[in-house]
């Protein structure tokens, strides 16, 4: 038997990282969106890729001023905010573990543990390492895995 975990919102509190990167990226491109807009889009489904979600929300909420960012431009801005720069820490530094380490370790004694996430593999591995839970999970299915 195996327990499969989602990362964002299940293992990791992303309210100050991914969600904030969506809001700040949208604002950068002139779109005023809210946490409620993000929540509604996520609830509708098909919004697991936060770069694409941000792009879609920008285009749905942007005031027409003649400019329209590409998905590549949106992704670049999002990543600068999330990953950080040499002069600015990334929003990923704000992520915290939701379940207790003790609970995860107890479950891992009874079950094989895996992660299925829409995150890029590098972001998944970073979170597992920084939160000290990499040893608990035997497999991670990430964005690149389709």
The chain-level structural class is alpha/beta
* Largest sheet entry: 3 strands, parallel
Intertermini distance: 23 Å
Write the element-wise H/E pattern from the N-terminal end onward. EEHHHHEEEHEHE
Strand order of the largest sheet: 1-6-7
Poorly predicted runs are: none
Tally of separate domains = 2
Helix residue percentage: 40-55%
How many whole angstroms does the radius of gyration measure?
Answer: 16 Å
Residues in β-strands, percent: 5-15%
Number of strands: 7
* Count of alpha and pi helical runs: 6
Q: Could you report the average pLDDT, rounded to the nearest whole number?
A: 93
Shape: elongated
Would you mind describing this structure in some detail?
It is a single chain. The model has no long low-confidence stretch (mean pLDDT 93). This protein has a 3-stranded parallel β-sheet. The chain has a two-stranded antiparallel ribbon with strand order 2-5. The protein has 2 domains: 2-13 and 96-145, HAD superfamily/HAD-like (Rossmann fold), CATH 3.40.50.1000; 18-93. With 146 residues, it is α/β, with parallel strands linked by helices. Helix 1 runs parallel beside helix 3 (50-61), helix 1 (18-28) packs across helix 4 and helix 3 packs across helix 4 (71-83). The chain has helices spanning 18-28, 35-44, 50-61, 71-83, 101-110, 121-130, and strands spanning 2-5, 12-13, 84-85, 88-89, 96-97, 112-116, 139-141. The chain contains 6 helices and 7 strands; from the N terminus they run E-E-H-H-H-H-E-E-E-H-E-H-E. It starts with a strand and ends in a 5-residue tail after the last strand. The longest helix is centred in the middle third of the chain and has 13 residues, at 71-83.
